[in-house]
Design goal:
Helix content: 25-40%
CATH architecture of the largest domain: 3-Layer(aba) Sandwich
Oligomer: single chain
Strand order of the largest sheet: 9-8-10-11-13-12-18
Number of domains: 3
Number of helices: 16
Largest sheet: 7 strands, mixed
CATH class of the largest domain: Alpha Beta
Strand content: 15-25%
CATH superfamily of the largest domain: Thiamin diphosphate (ThDP)-binding fold, Pyr/PP domains
Length: 547
């Protein structure tokens, strides 16, 4: 399973089991090479069957459109596990599927011949570097054995084919050539064999005798350290300047952070068309100030937007990337394959690589939109370890959380309640350098009779209801605005619930499930540990009970 091995300090990056998805990362690295005028190429290798994946087409289309120095190598051994190539594509050579793409060179070689393969890849590298355009190398190969230990290839391959691939074993052919052209003697090759077998035996023994990993280590490298605010440790302020709308807080913070870090980039759909800056104009004026190299449009291909962000951030740790993952959060679903991949890259690399990406998503309803313009998706996104998720309700929190997201290592999903972009209810004074730490809720209204836990659009509804209850009945409701969903400020929530002994969770989502269910479960799990059952039938300490 050599694809899973990696050594980032040598620029060899891990490839996941999602076949072909690393082609998008390669394109992202190629984009960084071009922007930073780096002398080099990106090498991306895969089997011919993985080319059937849609994101591979997105990657090669993007590499040709942006004219990037990426060499895509297709190792064509005729099978995707047991699925023959004829069931994958109509073309005999899968590289021919891409012949219509501009700026793309295609090279064919005999993958069973070491020298033909070497010459083809050398030609591809030199061409990509000289022209800053992508190249496909299609190598015809043979698969000697089964796909894996659990795959019995004799069930779908006949003896004639198996005999053929043994006859064209590239290693045996290379060995014969070395002896024929007197580069090595048979005795010298046998000595090399013996030396290598001894090395493998030693490594095998070391692996078997190594201690098992500590199960607790599963929690190592889930998330890199976040940026910590020294001036605003609680994410609150007493600034009394002019009120700004939420959309102004976002736009001004984006621009301020782009000035702060010249290695910051933003792309997405519709974000750089003359005076338009995104479907809601959050990024308005950015391309005019920072140029097309740093602020640019992406294809309508959400996986491409997300995957190339993952790749570009690999080029240098100082790079910070902001993407509009989709025009509306509801349209983010095509990017989920790359989103999931990015969430566990820090964990999978044991902290050697952190995707420094802020994913902006316009979320929620209350704008009169249809099915794909009104949904909340944070309940699904919070199930993935390795990503922070924030959801502000006011302009100052939006600015502060965005600044923290853009300065932190690792990935943050920044949910923007689009109904509040221009709503006066969300307008607040915003300090110029305001920062809100992750995992810090904010008490919007103090009270002792009931706790309401909320976030996003419903925060303002809860404050209004609390004010009305106080006016009509004298009851004082405490309203907690979570601001940060992952990490979650359990301490503030539990402290309030302990004070009021009653809690209402209010959020905007589907009828069944949602992030509110997790809040409710957390409160129950944490508080029930402190409760002793008063039933006469038992009297034991409980975690869950229906008595």
């Amino acid at each position: 399973m050599s694809n899973h091995f990696a050594k980032p300090e040598w620029n060899i990056h891990n490839v996941s089991s999602c076949t072909g998805n690393h082609t998008l990362h390669a394109v992202g690295v190629g984009r960084a090479m071009k922007k930073y005028k780096h002398e080099g190429v990106v090498f991306s290798s895969q089997g011919e069957s993985s080319v059937s994946e849609g994101y591979v087409y997105e990657a090669i289309n993007g590499a040709t459109n942006e004219q990037l120095p990426v060499v895509f190598v297709f190792q064509d051994n005729g099978y995707g596990i047991s699925v023959p190539k004829k069931d994958q594509t109509a073309n005999r050579k899968v590289a021919d599927n891409f012949r219509g793409m501009k700026y793309l060179k295609i090279i064919h070689c005999n993958g069973k011949d070491v020298f033909d393969s070497m010459n083809a890849v050398l030609e591809a590298k030199e061409y990509a570097m000289a022209n800053s355009t992508p190249v496909i190398v299609q190598a015809n190969c043979v698969r000697m054995g089964s796909h894996s230990n659990s795959d019995r290839h004799e069930l779908y391959r006949d003896n004639a084919e198996l005999n053929y691939v043994q006859e064209y074993d590239p290693l045996a052919k290379y060995r014969r050539m070395l002896v024929r052209y007197k580069r090595f003697t048979e005795e010298e090759l046998q000595a090399i064999d013996a030396e290598v077998k001894l090395e493998v035996k030693k490594a095998h023994k070391a692996g078997l005798t190594a201690p098992d990993p500590d199960p607790a280590s599963i929690y190592d490298f889930v998330l890199p350290e976040a940026y910590v605010s020294e001036k605003y440790p609680e994410g609150t302020h007493s600034f009394t300047g002019n009120e700004k709308k939420l959309i102004e807080g976002l736009n001004e913070t984006l621009k301020a952070e782009f000035r702060h870090n010249p290695d910051t980039y933003i792309w997405g759909q519709d974000i750089a068309n003359k005076d338009k800056g995104g479907i809601f104009n959050v990024s308005k004026g950015m391309q005019q100030e920072f140029g097309k190299e740093r602020v640019f449009n992406a294809p309508i291909a959400e996986d491409y937007i997300m995957g190339t962000a993952n790749g570009m951030s690999r080029f240098n740790d100082k790079i910070r990337i902001v993407v509009e993952g989709a025009e509306f959060a509801d349209y983010f679903w095509p990017a989920m394959e790359q989103f999931v991949e990015t969430t566990h890259d820090f964990w999978r690399s044991k902290g050697q690589y952190a995707p420094n990406i802020t994913v902006r998503l316009a979320s929620g309803g209350y704008i009169g939109g249809g099915l794909y313009h009104s949904q909340n998706i944070e309940g699904a996104l919070t199930t993935f370890p390795g990503v922070r998720i924030v959801y502000p309700s006011y302009a100052d929190d939006a600015a502060g959380l965005l600044r923290t997201s853009m300065r932190s290592k690792g990935m943050t999903v920044f949910m923007e309640p689009k109904a509040l972009y221009n709503d006066p209810k969300a307008a607040t004074p915003v300090p110029e350098d305001f920062e809100v730490p992750f995992g810090k809720a904010r008490v919007r209204r103090a009270g002792s009779d009931l706790t309401i836990v909320t976030y996003g659009n419903t925060t303002h509804m809860c404050v209004e209801v609390a004010d009305k209850l106080a006016e009509e009945s004298g009851k004082q409701v405490e309203v907690i605005d979570l601001r940060s969903l992952i990490p979650l400020d359990k301490e503030t929530v539990l402290k309030s619930v302990a004070k009021t002994n009653k809690v209402l969770v209010v959020h905007e989502d589907k009828v069944f499930s949602g992030f509110g269910a997790e809040i409710s479960a957390m409160i129950t799990e944490e508080d029930i540990r402190k409760v002793r059952c008063t039933s006469k039938t038992c009297g034991i300490n409980i975690y869950s009970c229906r008595i």
